[in-house]
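Morning, I've got a small favour to ask if you have a moment. Here's the protein in full, and shout if anything looks odd to you:
***
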Amino acid sequence: MNERKPIECWLSDMDGVLVHEGSPVPGAEEFIRSLRDSGKRFLVLTNNSIYTPRDLSVRLRGVGLEVPAEAIWTSALATARFLDDQRPGGSAYVIGEAGLTTALHEVGYILTDTAPDYVVLGETRTYSFTAITRAIRLIDAGSRFIATNPDAVGPSNEGSLPACGAVAAMITKATGVEPYFVGKPNPMMMRSALNAIDGHSESTAMIGDRMDTDIVSGMEAGLHTILVLTGVTTKDQIDRYPFRPSRVVQSVADLIDLVE
């Protein structure tokens, strides 16, 4: 453990760590149960801003994973927390789904297309050219540009779909304004999650399947980082990066004893 404090809090990515291609990773159910039974604080993190925590809790339950809504932290929640800290009671023009609009409403933000403080871009199943055009004009007029995450593509049954990062690049090309991305790999996502569960970086672990988002953001936030090999990053790719996780395991099934 490199003389770190014992792990008291756990942060875990969702896709590639707990679920893969719509099915639970072997051992994920037991791992989640061990977290709940241990009484240790934990959050499941996702850059996806489409769904509310309640939505995601129901979707996870549908594949056999019992994760309560209060144990789910999305880039939408992190974005809302960030904006509430920066400009309490502000206003925003939002391109996104219920996960993002609900999070902003809950921190007291007004959603408007008239001189908003921010243009906030998240994921949506159908990006509207009209909405994107409106966002470009508002940014040109002085609204600040925020995006929930930099992911360029997202998965679907038919193949890759353009995601938040790709649409943000289009808006940047049109306006010359770069967005501030709140989600991974920004360590802001980790810091906001830690604050949500009153955790401390020295005694918190981050589990992820991607070196370029989960592990780097966990490392930059000062967390103990654990790479699982059930998602994007393979074992032979680890040495290509100039940083390393604190440990590498095959799957979350190998972490059950560490939790207990």
About this structure: Residues 93 and 119 are 5 Å apart (CA to CA). The longest helix spans residues 75-86. The mean pLDDT is 94.
